[in-house]
Specification:
Order of helices and strands: EEEEHEEEEEEEHEEEE
Strand content: 25-35%
CATH topology: Immunoglobulin-like
Helix content: under 10%
Number of strands: 15
Distance between the termini: 31 Å
Length: 205
């Protein structure tokens, strides 16, 4: 997820949604009806903030899973801040039933999916921009969009078009991989910083 954001806002000492920048991902692996994310069993809600800190008070981890354990989830996330561009990158295992049954990915398999970015400025509540409309996705996974796995796009009757400005596409040339390496065309790029958050980084033992 790549976002243009002139004012990077995070409050490590007083984390409070939605008064800081963040990214959320919602997944319902078996696309069952009306699951909520409270206990992460039927559907999951994941958070990350782009600097050390947490998504909200009472959440210990960054990244985090709502109502779940990041170690059991195998969750990883990283953020790259370059000029006025913030890149969020995720590695999220998929579950049919968290945490004991992983999802088997196959062609034409459909899952519930959504992603949103919170853009805070100053002390005001942030703007919430999502892939699909409506709020309340943490209460009802019917509101999530459909993500369908395919082997390739060669025989699909669709036209793939860029959905972000060309300036952002160029900025995404500074790739941030889940290994924590910042590269341009697979060559390490000096002068760029990345925050890598492993599942064990902020977890209380």
């Amino acid at each position: 997820m790549v976002a243009q954001d002139d004012d990077s806002v995070v409050h490590p000492e007083n984390s409070q949604y939605p008064k800081q920048d963040a990214c959320e991902v919602y997944i319902d692996g078996d696309h069952s009806v009306g699951d909520d994310t409270q206990y992460a069993v039927g559907a999951q809600q994941y958070y990350i903030v782009p600097q050390p800190g947490t998504f909200n008070r009472g959440i210990q981890d960054n990244p985090a899973i709502s109502g779940g354990d990041i170690l059991k989830a195998g969750l990883q996330g990283t953020c790259l801040r370059s000029a006025n561009i913030t890149t969020y990158e995720w590695s999220i295992p998929l579950f049919e039933h968290y945490p004991d049954r992983r999802l088997r990915i196959e062609p034409n398999k459909k899952i519930g999916f959504d992603v949103n970015v919170i853009d805070a400025d100053g002390e005001e509540n942030g703007n919430w921009v999502a892939w699909t409309p409506e709020g309340g996705k943490n209460k009802n996974s019917d509101l999530l969009g459909d993500l369908v796995f395919v082997e390739n796009y060669q025989y699909l009757d669709i036209t793939l078009e860029p959905v972000i400005p060309a300036s952002l596409l160029r900025s995404y040339g500074n790739l941030c991989s889940i290994t924590g390496t910042v590269t341009t065309d697979k060559v390490p790029c000096p002068g760029l910083s990345t925050n890598l958050f492993w599942a064990t980084r902020t977890r209380s033992q």
